[in-house]
Amino acid sequence: MYAAIWRLLPGPFWVRVLVVLVLLTAILYCLVTWVFPWVDTLVNNQEVTVGVP
Asked: Quick check: is 48 in a domain?
């Protein structure tokens, strides 16, 4: 599957690497900005402390 995606990208090797880096950066930005905060509202986060016996 990754080989098929790699073949679809335009340009020589260095352009493909640059496009992949930009796409990964955009995906990570979207995850941190919108997805992770949304998931955090769904997760039941309680105050949990671990005591040392």
From this structure: no
> What values do phi and psi take at 46, rounded to 5?
-110, 160
Structural domain count of the chain: 1
Locate 53 and state its tokens: 């016996």
Which are the contacts of 16, defined by CB distance < 8 A and separation ≥ 6? 6, 9, 10
The answer to whether position 53 is within a domain reads: no
* pTM to 2 decimal places: 0.72
Express each pLDDT in 16-28 by its tens digit: 999 999 999 999 9
Query: How far is residue 29 from each of residues 12, 36, 40, 41, measured CA to CA in Å?
Result: 26, 10, 16, 18
